[in-house]
Amino acid sequence: MKKSILSLASVSTAALMLLCLSAPVKADDPCVAVGGGSLCGSSDKGVQSYKGIQYAQASLWNSSVITSSYQAKTPATDYGAPCPQGQSAETLSDCLFLNIWTPAEPGAPADKTVMVFIHGGAFVFGSGGQQGQNNPYDGSNFAADQNVVLVTLNYRLGAAGFLYDPNIDALQKNGGNFGIEDQINALKWVRANIGAFGGDASKVTIFGESAGAMSVGLHMFSSEASSGLFRGAIMESNPIGVIYRDFSEASADSVTFLQCLNAVIDNPKATQCGTLATAPKLPETAAGGDTLLAATKLYEKVLKSSGRVRRDGLPEALPFAPVIEPNSYLAAQPAEAVEGKAPVPYMYTFNKSEGVLFAELAAQKWTGKFALPLIYSMLIGDMFATSDEILDNEKYRKHPESLERTIDSMGSLITDFAFACGNMKANQTANSDSVWGFVVLQQPVVPSTPPVDACAPANKAGNVCHEAELPFVFNNLPNGAGPNDIKLAKNMNKVWATFAMDPAGGPGTEWARWKAGHTGLNAFAEPAISPVPDIYGTSQCDFWKNQEPRVNP
After folding, report:
1. Alpha helix (H) ranges present in 338-477?
2. d(CA 313, CA 404)
3. Average pLDDT over every residue of 341-364
4. What pLDDT is stored for residue 447 in this prediction?
5. Mean pLDDT on 40-56
6. Are 19 and 73 a contacting pair, CB within 8 Å?
7. Which of 79-83, 109-113, 502-506 comes out lowest in average pLDDT?
C-alpha cells in the first residue's frame, strides 16, 4: 500500500521514544539537562561528546520544526542517520541531527566560544558525522586544544532539500530552500540550548567547506532569517564567483524532476521520465525516500542530455542547489554582495588548485581525446557572453590536440574564476577592516573525494585540490603525517578558533586584513612561504572582472 507523501515523513512520539531507548546510558556518561529531559553523551580525554541529537523534525517539502523536548537520559553517543543520498533513503523523515564536542563538564558556566560547521557535498551528499574512526569533522581537537564548543549538523539534501515551483503552495515559504532553512533551525537550536553544553549563545561563528561554505555565504549575504544567529563566519573553498539558480530556472528544473518522480511512483522500475500535461503538483502518494532517490537518478539522466552537465565544478551543474530571487527567502547573489560590507567579520580560504579535481572528473566523464575539448568550449559559451575572449586567453585556451592540456585549461578556469578571483572580490567596495583572506599551498595528506591521481598526497604537479585543507582545519591528520603537516594542522586549527573567539579582532595580529586594492592575502604552508605569491595576478583577476557570467545560461 502506498503511503501519503506528507504523512510518510512525520515522526511520531513513539518513534522518538524508540530512539531514546536505542542504547543504554552508562552510569558515568555525562548528561546535560535540555528540553525538560536530558541528553547523555560520552567522555574521552577531557572532551564530552554528544552525538545524534535530533534538533528538528521534518516532513517532505515542509519546513522543519525545532525539537523542543527530550526524554530523560536520551542517549547521545552515536551519530544520527544522514539525510537521504545516493543509495537507501529509509531516513527520509529522521535525519536532522547535530553533534557537539565540548571541553565543559555538565553544569559548567556557559561562557565558551561556539563554532558550528556546515558540511559540503554539492548539496546532494554528506553529513555532519559518520560512524567509525574516520569522521573528518570530529571536533575533539577543537574542543581539547582550543577550548571551544564544536557543533556539526545534517540538513536535507537533493530534491528533499532544494525543490522549488511557483505553482506548488508547499514550496513557497522558503523558495524551495528547505536545506538552508534546516541549517537556520539548527542555529536556532544552538542559540536556545548550547548553554547546557558550556557554550555562550552570543559567541557563535559558523564555518563550512564547499557546499557548506556556499551555505555560510548565503547566511551572510542572502538570508534575512539568519541575521543575529552568529557573529563571525569562515568560508572554505566557496565557488562564490558563480551565479545561483533563480525562480525561473529552478521552476524549469522542478517540472522535469516531478515528471521523473511521477514516472517512478507509477512504475518503480521506470527508465524514462513521464510528462506533465497540466501545471506541476506534488504527487499524492509515494513509496518513501527510495522513490525520491530513484526519481533523482532519472532526473540526472535527463540532465546528462542537456547543457547543465557540461558545467562540472560550478553550481549550475548541481542537480539541486539553493535558489535566489530578489525579495524572497534568499534575496541576493553572493557573487555580487561579496564586494560590499558583510554583516559580520569573516575569513575566506581557497586552495591553490581548486579546479583540478573538477576538471579531472569531467575528463573521466567525457572520455575520448576530442570529447573534453569540445565540451569545454561549449561550457565557456554556456557560461559567458565573452566566450571568444576567454578562449583566446592562453591560460584558458582549448586544445583539441591534447586532452591533458584541456584538463589544465579547465582546471585553471574553475580555480581562477569561481574560487580565487570570486573570493578576492571580497570587500572591494566596502574596504572594511573585518575580512581576512587565505590561500592554502600545502599539499594534501589524504586522497580527494572521489580519488584522482592529480589530487593525491605528494602528487607530482604539487596540486592542492578541493577539500585538501579539511584535515588541517580539524587537526585530524592520518597516521604517519610528517612534522611539517603536524605543525601546520595545529596552526590552522588555532587560527580558526582564534578568529571565532574574537571575530572583530581576527585570527591574530600576524595575519593581514584583506583590503580594497587586493592587498593582504595570507598563505598557509609549512615551512612558511614569504613573500606570499601574487595569486591575484597569476589568477588573472583583473581579466575576470570583465567576464561576468550569464545569470541563466
Report:
1. 354-365, 371-383, 387-391, 403-413, 421-423, 470-473
2. 17
3. 94
4. 94
5. 96
6. no
7. 79-83
DSSP assignment string, 143-184: HHHH--EEEEE----HHHHB---TT-GGGSTTTTBHHHHHHH
* 8-state DSSP, 306: S
Q: Are 467 and 237 in contact (CB under 8 A)?
A: yes
Number of helices (H), then strands (E), in the chain = 17, 17
The burial class, CB within 10 Å (0-12 / 13-18 / 19+), for 134 is exposed
pLDDT at 552 over 60: no
Q: What is the pLDDT of residues 467-493, one digit of tens each?
A: 999 999 999 999 999 999 999 999 999
Nearest to 189 by CA among 60, 70, 341, 48: 70
Q: What is the mean pLDDT of residues 351-378?
A: 83
What is the DSSP code (8-state) at residue 430?
A: T
Per-residue model confidence as pLDDT tens digits over 178-206: 999 999 999 999 999 999 999 999 999 99
pTM of the model: 0.93
Domains, in order of start, for the chain: 247-317 (no CATH), 338-544 (3.40.50.1820)
The 3-state DSSP class for residue 265 equals: helix
Q: What is the 3-state secondary structure (H, E, C) of 91-123?
A: CCCCCCEEEEEECCCCCCCCCEEEEEEECCCCC
Report the alpha-carbon distance of residue 395 to residue 540 in Å, rounded: 9
Beta-bridged to residue 349, according to DSSP, are 236, 438
Report d(CA 78, CA 130) in Å as an integer.
9
Orientation of helix 211-221 relative to helix 178-193, angle to 10°: 80
pLDDT at residue 133 in the model: 53
Q: What is the grid cell recorded at 342?
A: 558583510
465 touches 500 (CB < 8 A): no
In angstroms, rounded to a whole number, what is the distance separating the alpha carbons of residues 395 and 414? 12
> Per the structure block, which three cell numbers stand in for 272?
524514462
Pick from 69-78, 90-99, 180-189, 229-238: least confident: 90-99
> What confidence score (pLDDT) does residue 380 get?
86
Q: What single-letter DSSP state applies at residue 505?
A: T
**Other Cβ atoms closer than 10 A to 408:** 20
Alpha-helical segments (H) within 310-367 = 334-337, 354-365
Q: Which of 72, 84, 66 is nearest to 8 (CA)?
A: 84
- In angstroms, rounded to a whole number, what is the distance separating the alpha carbons of residues 397 and 224? 41
Look at residue 11 and tell me whether its pLDDT is greater than 70.
Answer: no
- Cα 223 to Cα 285: distance, rounded to the nearest angstrom: 32
Cis peptide upstream of residue 75 (ω within 30 degrees of 0): no
Residue 199: enclosing H or E segment and its boundaries?
Answer: strand 199-209
Neighbours of 262 (CB within 10 A): 21
Residue with cell 521520465: 273
